[in-house]
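User: Batch of two.

Assistant: Item 1 of 2:
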Amino acid sequence: MNESNKLLAVVFDLDGLLVNTEDLYEQAGETVLRRRGKTYDAALREQMMGRPVVDAIRLMIDCHSLPDTLDDLMCECKEVLEALMATSLAPMPGVERFLNKLGAANIPMAVATSATPEYAEHVLTTLGLKNRFRFVLTAADIRHGKPDPEVYLLAAERLGIEPSQMMVLEDSGNGCHAAVAAGAYSVAVPNRHTREHKFPGVKIIADTLTDSRILRALNISP
């Protein structure tokens, strides 16, 4: 890797990459749809994953022809999710060690998520992670959510670097598509919900953030 393409910063997705919220989303979706005699199946989950919350809830309504308004269903999903987060929210495997490694190497870090600002603030603050990041980009900062590359292009701009000088860590196909389209050094870290996703164009597909290839790409000793 020549100097012009040296990786100078790391940008993280939030759900399913830094925190276990994809598990909680699944439980919340199952609960909300079970109340209506509907099923939260794998096909719907994959369509919703990585998208802004408004788009995801709209997909849920359209898939099952629900009579609920978008606002009403969003409020209900939020209530169910918050109850789950109060007892079960946790970082994904390897997060703390990886963040410590990046911090010790003075590599700037940021978050780019399709979530709302309030949600991202709550999750990161609850887990004591917010102060690790230079900034957090959310759905409020962009017009087009993932898989559009807008959020990652904005992240590179905020960091003052070229997209190719930025490592992006994502767990989903939609997120990786956004990162690759932005021109970032893209790394897929799929979880149990996204292991069957396709990740064309990524540089690394890792099991967890503890994969030594990720640190080596950043010139950090594993």
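Item 2 of 2:
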Amino acid sequence: MTVTVLLADDENLVRSAMRALLALESDFDIVAEAASGGEALAMARRHQPHVALLDLQMPAPDGIAVAEVLRDELPATKTVIVTSHGRAGHLKRALSAGVRGFLPKTVSSGVLADVVRTVHDGGRYIDPELAAEAISAGESPLTPREADALELAAGGAPVEEIALRVSLSPGTVRNYLSSCVTKLGVSNRHEAVEVARRHGWI
């Protein structure tokens, strides 16, 4: 049986490399590609692929948010997150969003192909190192929205820009960042970022 695949990654080089690698497998058919979360959703709805390979951090919505929508709208489409930013917090969010596979972009082409087949057949694949990190990191005290706001703040973005990117008011973003500082027992958002990153929560 041919497995139909959607590739979504905002880096053209990465997407092209994955397409070239998977095209070598006789049982795969790359039916669509996307460079953003919005495109990925549109392509998935149009082609209804068996498996969607999603970059974690692409233009909104991110890969996990896309997976969440697909879980609800197209339950027959299995999702796999492929990322260069794999942290424990991301893995936990992904699993709660119904993602069936989670792996770093450093995996070999053979592993990537095997993961697509495993997920298509109803199985799961979680990168062993990421799984071990997630277990040792413990539960994050931050809500998903707080973690998103803190991650954007980590890049130095001002509150107004963060508010635009997460579709919230600046006041709400300030409240989220203040809550992060309080929950993590630090004195400012920069320290909060350090603590959250060290534990894999962002």
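DSSP finds ten helices and six strands in the chain.
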